[in-house]
């Protein structure tokens, strides 16, 4: 699911598809927020960096964020204890926030 969302975001951002142009509904005049495409690409970059540092923590984030699994279910998929999953989740959340904020 992550790859699908990232590929779609990259396609939308391509010059061939309008690149930097933004589509807005006529009744939506709020231009103060970043586009969801940029947000998905930033999350992908941060997850890639997190995976280099701690692959298991990055996997938990992917399972929770992209598939909506609970921590217990994600722990079962990864094959770790629930308490270890909570420790990885706490670290991964904090580290991902740091990476997204730009350190």
Overall number of structural domains:
1
Provide the residue-averaged pLDDT: 81
Distance between the termini: 27 Å
Question: What global shape is seen?
Answer: globular
How many H/I helices? 5
Q: Provide the β-strand percentage band.
A: under 5%
At CATH level 2, the architecture is: Orthogonal Bundle
- CATH C-level name: Mainly Alpha
Helix vs. strand class: mainly alpha
Summary of the model, kept short:
Helices cover 69% and strands 0% of the residues. With 103 residues, it is mostly helical. The two termini are 27 Å apart.
Provide tags for this entry:
Arc Repressor Mutant, subunit A, 5 helices, globular, mainly alpha, 103 residues
Walk me through the structure.
There is one protein chain. With 103 residues, this protein is mainly α. The chain has one domain: Arc Repressor Mutant, subunit A. It is 69% helix and 0% strand. The protein has 5 helices and no strands. Helix 1 (2-13) crosses helix 2 (36-53), helix 2 runs antiparallel to helix 3 (55-67) and helix 2 (36-53) packs across helix 5. The longest helix is centred in the C-terminal third of the chain and has 20 residues, at 82-101. The protein is globular and about 45 Å long. The model is unreliable at 28-33 (pLDDT under 50).
């Amino acid at each position: 699911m992550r790859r699908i969302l990232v590929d779609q975001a990259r396609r939308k951002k391509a010059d061939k598809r309008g690149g930097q142009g933004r589509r807005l509904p006529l009744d939506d005049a709020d231009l103060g927020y970043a586009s969801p495409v940029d947000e998905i690409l930033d999350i992908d970059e941060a997850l890639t960096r997190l995976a280099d540092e701690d692959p298991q923590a990055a996997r938990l984030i992917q399972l929770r964020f992209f598939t909506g699994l609970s921590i217990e279910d994600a722990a079962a998929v990864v094959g770790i204890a629930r308490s270890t999953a909570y420790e990885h989740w706490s670290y991964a959340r904090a580290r991902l926030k740091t990476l997204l904020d730009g350190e």
